[in-house]
Amino acid sequence: MGEQAYFLVFYPFAFSAVCGSELEELEEVREEFAARNIRIMGVSVDHKYALRTYADQARFGFDLLADFWPHGAVASSYGAFNFESGAATRHTFLIAEGRVVDSFSSPIHQARAIARYREAMDLLT
């Protein structure tokens, strides 16, 4: 694998219960992913200042990106935005060499399984 790959992890909102536990789980495996040259980038519609506070409090070692304005534009471009709730859906994209290698999602109330991330990573080998 040449350049670094990354998981673009859309989630509804910072500070919410399911999102928090899901992102904490990603933090626990971050080094495992980094050893395979895969970076994690979380994306929500929260403001960058809220995300900075959230990342600092939770001690996340990966980036949280703000899709705040235009509201949800990035999530929308990936088909990962719920227009009724005004939030990103729970959708993940593995991107490598400028293309989407894999994508998966879960219902809004359910965290994505770490096993599913590992399945996606195996597509890179």
Features:
single chain; 125 residues; alpha/beta; Glutaredoxin; five-stranded mixed sheet; two-stranded antiparallel sheet; 4 helices; 7 strands; 35% helix; 27% strand
Main sheet characteristics: 5 strands, mixed
The radius of gyration computed from the alpha-carbon positions, rounded to a whole number of angstroms, is 14 Å
Mean pLDDT: 94
Secondary-structure element order, as H and E?
Answer: EHEHEHEEEEH
CATH topology descriptor? Glutaredoxin
Strand fraction equals 25-35%
- What top-tier CATH class fits best? Alpha Beta
Individual helix count:
4
**What is the count of structural domains?**
1
The helix fraction, in percent, is 25-40%
Q: Note poorly predicted spans.
A: none
Function: Thiol-specific peroxidase that catalyzes the reduction of hydrogen peroxide and organic hydroperoxides to water and alcohols, respectively. Plays a role in cell protection against oxidative stress by detoxifying peroxides.
Organism: Paeniglutamicibacter psychrophenolicus
Protein name: Peroxiredoxin
Keywords: Oxidoreductase
What does this structure look like?
- The chain is of the alpha/beta class and 125 residues long.
- The protein has one domain: Glutaredoxin (3-Layer(aba) Sandwich).
- 35% of the residues lie in helices and 27% in strands.
- A 5-stranded mixed beta sheet has the order 3-2-1-6-7.
- β6 and β7 form a beta hairpin.
- The longest helix has 19 residues.
- The protein is globular.
Q: Helix and strand layout, with pairings?
A:
Layout: E1 5-10, H1 17-35, E2 38-44, H2 48-58, E3 63-66, H3 73-77, E4 81-82, E5 87-88, E6 91-96, E7 99-105, H4 114-122
Parallel strand pairs: 1-2, 2-3
Antiparallel strand pairs: 1-6, 4-5, 6-7
